[in-house]
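Slack export, channel: ligand-projects

TW: morning all. Re-posting the request from yesterday since it got buried. We need the structure predicted with the small molecule present, not the apo form. The ligand is magnesium ion; the SMILES is in the block with the sequence. No rush, but it would help planning for next week.
GE: picking it up
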Amino acid sequence: MATVSDDAALLEVGPLNKTFGTSTVLRDVSLTVRKGEFMTLLGPSGCGKTTTLRIIAGFETPDGGRVRLSGVDVTDTPAYERDVHTVFQHYALFPHLSVADNIAFGMRMDKVPENEIRRRVPEALSMVKLAGFEQRRIQSLSGGQMQRVALARAIAGRPAVLLLDEPLGALDLKLRKEMQLELKNLQRRLGLAFIYVTHDQEEAMTMSDRIAVFNHGRIEQVGTPGEIYEMPKTSFVADFIGGANIFSARVLPGAEGRAHLMLEDEHELDVPLDPYETLPEVGARVKIAIRPERVKVFYKDELPFGLIRFDAVLKDTVFLGDACQIYLQMFKKNPERLTLAWAGGDRYAVHDDMNVPVIAAVQPEDVYILEKDND
Amino acid sequence: MTQIDRALSWLLGGRKPAASHLLLAPASLWLIFLLVIPAGGLIILSFAKNGPYGAIVWEFGLHNYARAFDPKYLPVLLRTLGFAGATTVLCLVLGYPLAYFLTFRAGRWRNALLVGLMVPFWSSCLVAYYSWMIVLGKEGLINTALLRAGFLSAPIGFLYTPFAILLGLVYFYLPFTVLPLYASLEKMPRSVVEAAYDLGAGRWTAFLKITLPLSLPGVVAGCVLTFIPCLGDFLTVEILGGPRYYLLGNLISNQFMMAQDWPFGSALTSLLLAGLVGGLWLYQRWEKA
Ligand SMILES: Nc1ncnc2c1ncn2[C@@H]1O[C@H](COP(=O)(O)OP(=O)(O)O)[C@@H](O)[C@H]1O
Ligand SMILES: [Mg+2]
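GE: finished. pasting the full token output, ligand included:
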């Protein structure tokens, strides 16, 4: 294996295209993964995450695009010669072999000497906290234990990159939370690059160094959890990660470095642009997003300085314990469309009187300007 | 009813009868008519005596069984085991690649091919065997073609040889081998084989280390399902083999049809049945282990 400096790309993929029959599953998917990086492919089910992973593993051939591993083009290399291992969605353990033989399988294929294997099997097992499970039968394991064996089997051969396809999907919530942290720790300790597939945005936020957000076979945005959350580029990303109120707005002439926008009902906003952020031409429509937790609701006619103000009508409040959901009607012309706001876990935010006028307010920086609205 | 259910469930897998066995009641009734009553009658008959002109004399004894163990029937038994064994091996050798192809390679042709495989099942085997006679006979298709082409100066006697018998048996029993194999390969998750590739196993290694061992229950089921009916087959030899190669099935059918010795035929049948049940019982135990 060629040595790779720390920040150089260990894996470079793209631009991948793939169709199955008449349905296009991947469109120009490009991805780079650095050494020791935890990269998550996040997106709703059916958006092409597994297909991308299978192309990297060598189970599918892309219609277009290349896969380069440690600087070597492996697009036409069969799966069994690629230095990547996969943790499959349903574990795919070998049911007729013991736990130890499952873990040793890859090393035997790589002709690792038996005494070395005898040393590394318990080592891999203790890394996944299953020390002493060598002789157990696969059928006698619980789901969580099978998950760990699958993980031990995949890391024992010390691949360059580990691919994980929704590995925690079949576990219950509590175990999943534990395993998330454990996996992240293991990945850090091994310094191994992980490509991790999930449809759970919270899981992605918890574990990843970077997240690639998939939608309909495309990558909409790649970035750290912070970037994805704070600077979503598209309405899909804003809504899928964290949730957002999405509005359509018309671009009006504005000052340098600021965007002057008009929403429905003649609401006008003036918000700062991020550096390098560009705005469509005057007259075009853009989508904007406001996170519910950034919307402040005032019940009296008071407004701290510098906030953007919307006159709204209170429609519903739901107390959830740690937070309170507030539904607002902001647009008189479109009364069905409710805007969501979150208040902290304050019981007093719950209001019994509905249909009362309130004021919704946001910081100008909390209005995200997204893609052009072509609808 | 429950006694029979218990006996059946014991026979079929040794599980304790559960409430769901009530659902099996109609099937159980059916089995009583088709299996338990005739088999019971057969066993009773096997202890009776044969009178003149095929009459049955109700004097009970073990004489029919004593006769069945006469060494003169040993060659028939050995020949039967030999043909059934050879058929099973040939069916496995041909059937495994076929089942593998059907499962992993046939793609959208799979269902059509499966139906094609079942054709010998559905067509009457008489029709099938007479068509083989047309193909194999002295004036049959193969001989005619070879003679015309000048490869032969005289026709070859394919019919009434062990070759013709094996051909007929393999032709008829191949689906019995392929279907259980297909079922066991089909239910094996693809990702398990992919995991083997992923960990560095080539196609052949992955087959030997993963696919083959995991399909072993299908292999055994296919062999059992082929071997057992082969032991009782008589039509194949009747039509394609001739009297020189009579098997156990022919010996039995002769007692009923020609010799008119029903009690002796019943004793032979009971012994065959006992052998089969014993074999199936061993198989069940193996499967559960
Ligand atoms: N082998 C295949 N043949 C046909 N369609 C497929 C195949 N594999 C995946 N697809 C389709 O490709 C799309 C993306 O699938 P997948 O990559 O598994 O999505 P994800 O893992 O994001 O849920 C789905 O619509 C799926 O039905
Ligand atoms: Mg998937």
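GE: first-pass observations. Confidence is low (pLDDT under 50) at residues 1-5, 10-17 of chain B. Residues 72-288 of chain B form a domain with the MetI-like fold fold (CATH 1.10.3720.10).
TW: perfect, thank you
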